[in-house]
Amino acid sequence: MYDILVNNGKIVTADAVTAGNIAVKDGRIAAVLAEGIEPEASRVIDAKGNYVFPGAIDTHAHLNDPGYEWREDYEHGTAAAAVGGYTTVIDMPLQNEPAMTNADLFDRKEEKVSSNAYADYCFWGGLVPDNFEDLKGMHDKGCVAFKSFIGPVSPDYSSLNYGQAYEAMQRIKEFGGRAGFHCEDYSLIKWQEARMKREGRLDWQGFLDSRPVIAEMVATVDMIELAKATGCKVHICHVSSPDVAQKIKEAQQEGCDITAETCSHYLSLTDKDVIENGPLFKCAPPLRSQEEVDRLWKYVEDGTFSGIASDHSPCSYDEKFKEILGNKIENVFDVWGGISGIQSGFQVAFNEGCVKRDICPSVLADSMARRPAKAFGIYGRKGDIKPGFDADLVIVDPEREWEITGESLLYVNKISAFAGMKGKGLPVCTMIRGNVVAEDGKITAEKGVGELIRRLS
Ligand SMILES: [Zn+2]
C-alpha cells in the first residue's frame, strides 16, 4: 500500500508529457504508472488532468537569513517558493550577517534556518578574496557551488579580480567543486557609472547605459577562458543577454563543463519597464530589450540553461524609494538593485514560455528541474519524476488565469516588479518529499518541513 497516489495527471518530465499516475511511499516516488493503473494508497490526490511537474529548483535566491530578516527570512522566502512551485531553493551566501564563507558558518546558518523552512534548500558557499582556505571545508559540508562576483557588489561582500578568480578556480577544480560568477566587468561598470554621473544622466536610461551588455559579455568570456585554463566547473549566474548565452553555448559545445542560468524577469520584463516604472525594475544585469527577451527564450529551448532562477533579491519599500541603511536615495544609482520573484518565477516562465510561445512543458521540466539538479550535484534525489527520487511534485493548472498582487505575495516585503502582471497557468498544489506544502496559493504544512539538501556528487 502506498502513502499517496497522484492520479489523472499529465506527467511532465524533460523527456515527455504522458498521462499517468504517480505512487509515493516514505516521501519518495515509488512508481510512475500508466493511465488507468491505480494501486491502493492512503491518500489520493486528483490532478484533474492538469500537468504534474517535477518540483522546480531555484538555482539562485537571496533569503537574507541570518542577518537581514527585515528584507526576507526563511519562513517567508521558502513559503513563497513552495506556493510558487520551487521545491528546492539554492540560497546565496551573501546578504547574510555574517556572509557564509566557512564551514562553521555553514553549521550556524543551518541551525538558524532549519526550523523555519517550508521548502528544501541547499547552500551556495561564499567565495571572496580571503577565504580560499575555507572552500574545501564548505564543499565537504555539502555546499553545491561557490558564489563570487566579477563586478561591483554590496559592501558586506567582496569581488574577485581575474587573478583571484584564476587561483580560486584552480583550488576548486582540485576537489571537484563548481564556481559560480556574477559576470559583469567591474571596471567597465564603475567607469560607466562615473561617466553617467559626470554627464548628469541620473535617469533610468543612464542606469541602463551604465551596465551595457558588453560588461556582461567581457566578464563571461573571461570566466569561460579561465574555466578552460583551469578545468574548473563554472556556473554563469543570471544571464540577461542572448549574445552572452551564445558564448556559453559555444563553450559547452567545445566540451567545457560550463552551466548557466537565466531568470524569469529576463524572460518576461524589458528595459521599457525600467524606463517607465523605475525602482522596482532595477536589477543587475539590467533588463534588456523585447527583441533580446525573445531571442533569450531560444537558449532556454535548446538547453543552454541549467536553471530559470528567481535571483530573489528582496528589500524594503524604503530601499527602493527613500533610503538604504540611513543613506538617502538621491538618484537611480542609489536605488536598491534587485527583483523579488521567488513566488512568481515558475508561473511567469510557464505563461511566457508554454502559453505565449507554445513551448512544450518538457522544456521547463528540463531547464527548471533536471538540468539544475545535475549542475548542482543533487540529481538522484531532486530534479526528476522517477522511482527513488524525492516526491517533489507541482501540479500546474494550465488554464488558471492569474494576476499577481502585492497581497498575494508571502514575502516579508510584499513588493515586486511582477505585481500587476497577468497570465495563465498556475501551480495549484506543491508536494515536497510527499508532504503537501501548498495548495491554491496557501501554505498547508507546518514550518520546518523543508530540509537542508547536501550535494550528493
Ligand atoms: Zn543574486
Automatic annotation (TrEMBL):
Residues 51-437 form the Amidohydrolase-related domain. Keywords: Hydrolase, Metal-binding, Zinc. SUPFAM superfamilies: Composite domain of metallo-dependent hydrolases (SSF51338), Metallo-dependent hydrolases (SSF51556). Its EC number is 3.5.2.5. Its cofactor is Zn(2+). The keyword Zinc applies. GO terms for biological process: allantoin catabolic process; purine nucleobase catabolic process. This is allantoinase.
